[in-house]
Amino acid sequence: MLAQIGITPDDVWPADIDESPLARELPRQHASRLALGKAHKIAEHESEAWILGADTVVGVGRRILPKAEDETTARRCLELLSGRAHRVFGCVVIISPDGKVSERLVVTRVKFKRLSEQELQEYLSSGEWQGKAGGYAIQGRAATFVAGINGSYSNVVGLPLYETAALLSGLGWEWTQ
User: Fold this and answer.
1) Which residues, 6+ apart, have CB-to-CB distance to 52 below 8 Å?
2) How far apart are CA 86 and CA 40, in angstroms?
3) If you write DSSP's letter for every residue of the chain in order, what string do you get?
4) Domain boundaries, the chain
């Protein structure tokens, strides 16, 4: 996604942190904690680099939906989202080479149409849900489920690009064309 705004990372490292929600943790808190944790984990090894940590969490009310790792989980998520609105919480954290930390939390409201059993089956058969927060990828076949969106589309895809660019600029990133 960074390529869309003219950035090619020198390296991409998995932060390998525990992403389990804490007891009574709300979706926005969860997204923020994970993005900060990822950025700081990488900063332990790369202290003089530009570091970006991010996370995306799908929330229905106070509930945090998991990343769907199996079809049963994906089905449960999609059945819960069917015919209702939910929020996608995306948090991006930038750590500059001089150690300054900037964070932005972005909330996007997404409204799903009511899904038929056939639509559910076809989507589950596609496998597109695998590893996706809330069991869907808006940039793929699930786009046909979205009756409305209020906020950042790129946030729902996985990284709020406008906010990422603003954070980088605010920390002194030099854009090259």
Assistant:
1) 2, 9, 39, 92, 93, 94, 164
2) 29
3) -GGGGT---S---------PPPTT--HHHHHHHHHHHHHHHHHTT-TTS-EEEEEEEEEETTEEEPB--SHHHHHHHHHHHTTSEEEEEEEEEEE-TT--EEEEEEEEEEEEPPPPHHHHHHHHHHTTTTT-BTT--TTTGGGGGEEEEES-HHHHHT--HHHHHHHHHHTT-----
4) 25-170
Active-site residue numbers? 55
Fold of 25-170: Maf protein (3.90.950)
Task: Quote the pTM value.
Answer: 0.94
Question: Given a cut of 60, is residue 177 above it in pLDDT?
Answer: no
- CA–CA separation, 4 and 119 (whole Å): 31
pLDDT digits (tens, 9 = 90+) for 90-128: 999 999 999 999 999 999 999 999 999 999 999 999 999
